[in-house]
Design a protein that fits this description.
single chain; alpha/beta; Quinone Oxidoreductase, Chain A, domain 1; 2 domains; 6-stranded parallel beta sheet; 11 helices; globular
Length: about 325
Amino acid sequence: MSRAVRIHDFGDADVLRIEDVTVGQPGEGEVRLKIHAIGLNRTEITLRSGRSPVKPALPTGLGFEAAGIIDAVGPDVTGFAAGDRVALVPAYGAAQYALYGEVALAPAASLVAIPEHIGFVEAAATWAAFGTAWSGLVAAGQLAHGQHVLIPAASSSVGLAAIQISRYLGAYPIAVTRRADKVSALTQHGAETVIVREEQDLLAAVQRVTNGRGIDLVFDPVGGPGFAQLVQATANGGTLVLYGALSGAPATVPPFDVFARDITIRGISLPAHARNDVQLSAMKQFVEQGMASGALYPVIARTFSFDDIAHAHRAVEAGEHVGKIVVTL
């Protein structure tokens, strides 16, 4: 028996229960992991709360991103063996594998070897953030040297990864945040400019920074009514990539701005890109090279113990942190 987090109802963080479970042998295409660190993401929060459009049968486990040591491999798994240190690139839903646990099954296709100089906490904070940012900026957005990138919710782990990837490609990341107390951290991690939504007019600030041209690529996890202003801030022929719905309200799109100025709006999902073998390989290569160069690095905001999983979820929901919240075992 080992311990794992399960939910029997959808709701706030109090629905998270740590229970004794039996984890069987891995099947075809699977490994069994001894989990050492779990990266928390909004996707698990959305599922746990019941706001996700896809609801698993209850009770269910949770988990989107983790790192650990393989302790058993399925009969057809090659390239990995018991004892290997690995992390996961999420190519599955947040309830498909019970990664919130001491021991969990995981798909071998999603594994990435952890370099010796990288710890489990950093490894568990890497692939959801940098994979999502790569999918939006590189695969979908075709970001090029010298372009301007607008990054709302920039203090999140994905936002920080987007800032770093923009810098790595020679683009100019413009971070957007609600609060002025995050400006220093965002600048420290590479933002060219920081726009504070509560204090500045977004359109005026964009026009000033881009010399009136507008934004080449917007990378937005918020949506909602404010999406219309992001469209207006986009340059003629520019692209908006939507990868989340933090607002909770439908995204508002001004049609004249879209068709009259030849603007492209795209949605992206990390699992969709990670399930494509060609894109997964390109993603891994890009991120691993960037990390080896020192240009890309996960930012750890705070760690919690496994027994404090509910407090960790509340911290994610509060949104006061800069970077990734990780649970350790």
